[in-house]
Amino acid sequence: MDLEKEEELRKEMLELLDNPPFGQQKKSIAKERKDTPVYSGVIKYFPDALKEIARASKIGNDQHLPGQPLHWDRTKSSDDLDAMVRHLLDHGVNPMDDDGILHLTKVAWRALASLQVYLDKNN
Q1: Does pTM top 0.90 for this prediction?
Q2: Phi/psi class of residue 100: alpha, beta or left (left: φ > 0; alpha: ψ in -120 to 50)?
Q3: For tag attachment on the chain, is the N or C end more exposed, with fewer CB atoms within 10 Å?
Q4: How confident is the model at residue 101 (pLDDT cuts 50, 70, 90)?
Q5: What are 96's strand-pairing partners?
Q6: What is the mean pLDDT of residues 47-54?
């Protein structure tokens, strides 16, 4: 290897040591995590509402998927936005649905489902 190429390689190696690409990636991932405060920005704000949504998820799973572990079977419903609005309208008539779950809880569940489906398709 000639001296010129050796010097060029040495400079590239020093540049990588000073500015490693993985170091920059870790910083951006850490920043993204800190800019997404799931606990302090969501869970702490709405603990009771989230517990109600979790309870509704379990009751819905037990109703529609008896005997199966808790999971979201996305094939069971594709009309989340329509169902969300129906529950919102029904809330105005009677806040409690026939199964003992508040219509607003179902509105929130459907809103989260719609958002998740949208994010899955667009991210």
Answers
A1: no
A2: left
A3: C
A4: very high
A5: 102
A6: 98
- Would you tell me how many other CB atoms lie within 10 Å of the CB of residue 78? 10
Segments making up each domain of the chain, as ranges: 1-36, 37-122
State the burial class of residue 65 (Cβ atoms within 10 Å of its Cβ: 0-12, 13-18, 19+): middle
For 53-70, write each residue's pLDDT tens digit. Answer: 999 999 999 999 999 999
Cβ(114)–Cβ(84) below 8 Å = yes
Angle at 61 between CA 60 and CA 63, to 5 degrees: 65
Sign (positive/negative) of CA torsion 89, 90, 94, 95? negative
The rounded distance, in Å, linking the Cα atoms of 103 and 97 is 6
Per-residue pLDDT tens digits for 72-92: 999 888 899 999 999 999 999
